[in-house]
Amino acid sequence: MAKLPKEHQFFDVSDYGRPMAKLIANSLTNTSLSPIHVTIGFIISGLLSIICMVYHQYWAAAFFLVLKSILDAADGELARLKKTPTYTGRYFDSVSDFLLNALFILTLWYITQGSLFYAFLAFIGLQLQGTLYNYYYVILRKKHNGDTTSRIFEDEAPKAMNGEKQSDVNLLFGLYRLFYGLFDKVIHYLDPNAITAQKLPKWFMTCVSLFGLGFQLLIIALMLVFDLAAYIIPFFIVYSLLIFVVIPTRKFINR
Known about the structure:
This protein is mainly α. The chain has one domain (about 5-255): Four Helix Bundle (Hemerythrin (Met), subunit A), CATH 1.20.120. The chain has ten helices and no strands. The longest helix is centred in the middle third of the chain and has 28 residues, at about 115-145. The chain is globular, with a radius of gyration of 18 Å. The mean pLDDT is about 95.
């Protein structure tokens, strides 16, 4: 089961790892491994990439960043194949992404001995980019009866699904709100009418997918292997300004 019906699927630049993720998920379908185990796998891969960055092993760091993106897609694929989507898995995935993103930026700040303030701005920009992408994507999925574990507004903890504990959902939801709540509010403030948008064309969603986490990590990986580590933090600060191009474009499409 895909996140969107086939007729509404678009070319997602950030989802380049999906083919490999499907192979991994298919190989795990009849095993005892759960989507949570795969999520733990991408956490380990992300931490290994950080260790490699610290020791200036940039090719290895790039490998583990890309592997992290593949496994990040594989956990959801496995949940859909096993027909065991859960809010626990959804929030655990998001919370893990947030913490790893913070560690990635801190590591880049450390190895380049740059400005901590610029690192903070880059992290804020990174999160706003991803939030905008997810905002439009979830709206599209709701509009076309796609994946149901993500919600446009995360105002209160959802009711636990079969096979998960409400206490786990509540805990992870609380962490999700702590980490993402402000970013969600900022993006909704900047484009509140997107919720009722009649058109989110495939070409537009493909452009927005340039803000997806998978593509962000691919950029970091490529800049590392080309010995451009010192430019990664400044790049994401400037890259974030494209948010103020994307939102007016969405409004223009639905004028």
